[in-house]
């Protein structure tokens, strides 16, 4: 079982990172990867084996190696624990389960309604996490941490500053409540922030200096990403442009948000299939016009290298980008041409889950590994694609 590390954690963390990234290796291979001496690495491996993170085996000698000694191989144990990510944006709770190597082993979009203002209970979140553990055949006692993405502004201590779809959550510490209910450390953060961070780590915004991650819809919100870090601001409200009257599109209310999304989804799907129906084209143009103003303002504010279109409609970037680029060109009167590259988010809706799992690994390394190690690079499974295209 993993737990807090006793003794000097530096060499053990380097050893753990090396064996986790390689999967397995001999002492020589791991010492080289970790940048440690053989004695130091061997000592760390003993401790990692004691806490259940590493196991050893002795490889048999190959025929052409007659006379040599069998090599001891140390293998990382990814099944020593699990981390879950939860997406509460949409109509049903979505969960992804990753092992300690960062590999997704199961996802689920259970028929459990997400909390709403009318039904703010956290029970569906707890039930969904346990259901995915059961479906995966994972020992629930090995769950180490959970990351949650939700709408609204979340303070650093886990208290909801705003919660548009679950108003009774405002000024409640949802992080602490879920931690008590699930029994492991929980992180809670804004969905767009998590998705932006995930795209900077694994998606369309990786290796960029300055970038924007924008929700693809009316009354949009934007996240600024600089050198892989999401800019939060003093009160974590940086980029919440949709609350400003100047950028607020009339006729679009929270009460009809999901119905409106579905209506635009139908039109954009039809356009992707070659439709020339005036009603479909009109909806696309209306969406582009609504998004162009805040995007133009943010483009001038931070001069990004790239803009990624995310959210549920981000997968239709190919149908929106040409018109958005034209609208950005037209937005500037006497200033520089707004010619930033615009792309679709690569992770789609799965980005919220990726970001939630990544944040759980980052903030709770001591509880997960017992050591201060960086989050693993996640390896998504194929059925995560389903989660990226449905609400």
UniProtKB/TrEMBL annotation:
Coiled coil: none
InterPro entries listed in its UniProt record: ATPase_NBD, ROK, WH-like_DNA-bd_sf, WH_DNA-bd_sf
Recorded family membership: Belongs to the ROK (NagC/XylR) family.
Alphabetical list of Gene3D superfamilies matching this protein: 3.30.420.40, Winged helix-like DNA-binding domain superfamily/Winged helix DNA-binding domain
Protein name: ROK family transcriptional regulator
Transmembrane residue ranges: none
SUPFAM superfamilies, per the entry: Actin-like ATPase domain, Winged helix' DNA-binding domain
């Amino acid at each position: 079982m993993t737990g807090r590390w006793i003794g000097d954690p530096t060499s053990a963390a380097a050893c753990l990172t090396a064996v986790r990234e390689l999967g397995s290796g001999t002492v020589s291979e791991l010492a080289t990867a970790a940048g440690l001496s053989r004695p130091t690495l061997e000592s760390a491996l003993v401790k990692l084996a004691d806490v259940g993170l590493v196991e050893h085996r002795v490889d048999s000698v190959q025929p052409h190696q007659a006379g040599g000694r069998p090599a001891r191989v140390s293998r990382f144990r990814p099944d020593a624990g699990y981390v879950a990510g939860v997406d509460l944006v949409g109509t049903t709770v979505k969960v992804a389960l990753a092992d300690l190597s960062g590999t997704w082993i199961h996802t689920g979009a259970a028929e459990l309604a997400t909390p709403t203002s009318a039904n703010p209970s956290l029970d569906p979140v707890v039930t969904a996490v346990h259901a995915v553990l059961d479906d995966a055949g994972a020992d629930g006692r090995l769950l180490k941490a959970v990351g949650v993405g939700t709408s609204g502004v979340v303070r650093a201590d886990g208290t909801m500053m705003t919660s548009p779809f679950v108003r009774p959550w405002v000024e409640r510490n949802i992080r602490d409540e879920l931690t008590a209910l699930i029994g492991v450390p929980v992180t809670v953060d804004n969905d767009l922030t998590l998705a932006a961070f995930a795209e900077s780590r694994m998606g369309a915004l990786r290796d960029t200096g300055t970038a924007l991650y924008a929700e693809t819809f009316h009354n949009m919100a934007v996240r600024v990403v600089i050198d892989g870090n999401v800019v939060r601001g003093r009160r974590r409200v940086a980029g919440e442009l949709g609350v400003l009257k100047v950028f607020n599109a009339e006729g679009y209310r929270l009460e009809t948000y999901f119905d409106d999304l579905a209506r635009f989804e139908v039109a954009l799907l039809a356009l992707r299939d070659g439709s020339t129906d005036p009603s479909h084209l009109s909806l696309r143009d209306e969406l582009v016009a609504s998004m162009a103003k805040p995007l133009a303002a943010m483009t001038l504010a931070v001069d990004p290298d790239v803009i990624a279109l995310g959210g549920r409609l981000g997968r239709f970037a190919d149908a929106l980008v040409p018109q958005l680029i034209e609208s950005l060109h037209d937005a500037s009167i006497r200033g520089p041409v707004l010619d930033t590259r615009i792309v679709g988010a690569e992770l789609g809706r799965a980005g919220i889950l990726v970001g939630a799992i990544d944040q759980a690994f980052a903030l709770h390394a001591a509880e997960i590994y017992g050591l201060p190690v960086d989050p693993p690079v996640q390896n998504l499974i194929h059925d995560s694609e389903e989660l990226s295209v449905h609400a």
